[in-house]
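Note to self: the last two entries modelled the partners one at a time, which told us nothing about the interface. This time every component goes in together.
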Amino acid sequence: MTAFAPSRPARRAAYVPSAELVPDVLSGSVLAVARMISRAESGYAEASEALAEIYRHTGKAHVVGITGVPGAGKSTLVAALIKAFASDGHKVGVVAVDPSSPFSGGAILGDRVRMSDAAQSCQAFVRSMATRGHLGGLARATLQAVDVLDAAGYSPIIIETVGVGQDEVEVVTAAHTIVVLSAPGLGDDIQAIKAGILEIADIHAVSKCDRSDAPATVAALRGMMTLGPGRPGSDWQTPVLPVSSVSGERVSELKDAICRHWDHLRDSGELHDRERSIGRTRIFGTARQLLQDKFKRDVAELDTHVQAVVSRTMDPSVAACLLLGWDNEVLA
Amino acid sequence: MTDSSSNSQGDGARARIDVNSPIRVLVAKLGLDGHDRGAKVVARILRDAGMEVVYTGLYKSPNDVVSAAVQEDVDVIGVSLLSGSHLPLFQELGRCLREKKAEHIFVVAGGVIPEHDYAALSDSGVDAIVPQEARSDLIVTTIRNLIAERGRI
Ligand code: B12
Ligand SMILES: Nc1nc2c(ncn2[C@@H]2O[C@H](COP(=O)(O)OP(=O)(O)O)[C@@H](O)[C@H]2O)c(=O)[nH]1
Ligand SMILES: [Mg+2]
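The predicted structure of the combined assembly is written out below.
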């Protein structure tokens, strides 16, 4: 059996150099923005200068991270927020991250199912992104995608993380405002506590408040919040807000809280601290990635060291230093 | 893992990290067609072949689907249609692709599509039609072949 696929050689587009895409990105061309995000994801060397140029035009957008366990209602909430922000005249950008299969490297990116109507009616830019093996709740190129959207004039830019488990809180150092979403009835405890992400929230939202078990979750969370202090060095009071994305109830209150937090960051000067921590984390993260890439490229050298470590003629620390081209003294 | 056949990115486009980043496919249902079993099966087949699959849900207009495909920068729109309305829907899809300057995106059709409609669909811009009884490897190779012919953009 064969597929019906007559060949049509001449129809296809050629590679547009990334430098030529930059002006179109800056003027907000959806095609150019979308292509530039793909180039960042693929890590084309050819695109690095263009991305550097784009970065110079960023720093305007309010970046909002939404995190919570799978099924909490993140995608549905993002759809509701798109509408709420758009009705205030905002041009909303979204990057929604889902995991890649560790077996095939492929992925099914399903967040868009819930957002497509909102994206269409509000002219929001929604991009689905697979983790491609990156841990921490984001994809490696998530923040570059945010850069591209920022430079193209989108704000706010909402990041939906992979459903978090322990340690998957990279978004904390990626966004200005962190919304932790908990769903009622997903077990006795509040999932945010289990996942160890209670403290990272600037705003706690409880989804599905159209359901009768929601008030208990809200009460439990409010109880927890009175126990501990907020972020060190900040006088922001973390609110606990019930929302229903389905009925639309209280979504605008959540939107207002997100805006209030942004104002707070700017008025208090905390924005500067967040920007510094985002910058630091991005440098560290990229450095680590570049090293990993280098090690993976120099397979032969790596193998030699692995062999030496396995046969106990060299210890792992020395091997690591040799790979880095550093002297042993660094360890001292 | 991912496909390795195609890598013609044109002048000066050297890959730093991921020479063969996964093929991206939007799996779409067009119009009033509630048969979504096939679309979900196809999504899994493509995922297991190393592709990144964006699923957009039921009851989408050609315009919705093209807008989504542009933002997602997919290589292929894979449409699953069992309702019998494929002729007008694919014609409209082709028109939206031209209108949004997105003709670089391939269109692959599957579902219940009688052979006598193949030529008309091809004229509307459908690049490949996979027969309903096709095994999963034919679905995968059909898509890979299209990308291989074009190269990455
Ligand atoms: C199951 C089924 C239903 C289920 C659907 C459940 C669901 N959620 O999907 C229910 C009972 C709801 C249903 C309802 C109806 N159905 Co019905 N249904 C079927 C049936 C028996 C099987 C379809 C199926 O799921 N197959 C299993 C999947 C896995 O196979 P598949 O979809 O063909 O997909 C495979 C390939 O085609 C291919 N493929 C599919 N899509 C794509 C896309 C791409 C890009 C690629 C590469 C490959 C590819 O890969 C898949 C995996 O191998 C077909 C009969 C048939 N021969 O197909 C009728 C059929 C599709 N139904 C039909 C009809 C008429 C209806 C109704 C209108 C009946 C009515 N009068 O109420 C309603 C319409 C509902 C609606 N809202 O659209 C007709 C359509 C007639 C036509 N096209 O001219 C069919 C053909 C039956 C018939 N012979 O009359 N149906
Ligand atoms: N009743 C109710 N259900 C909701 C609400 N928000 C989301 N859901 C449902 O919760 C499920 C998971 O939603 P989804 O947004 O995909 O969650 P995610 O995995 O966190 O992105 C879906 O079945 C939604 O329909 C809500 O406000 N009320
Ligand atoms: Mg989701």
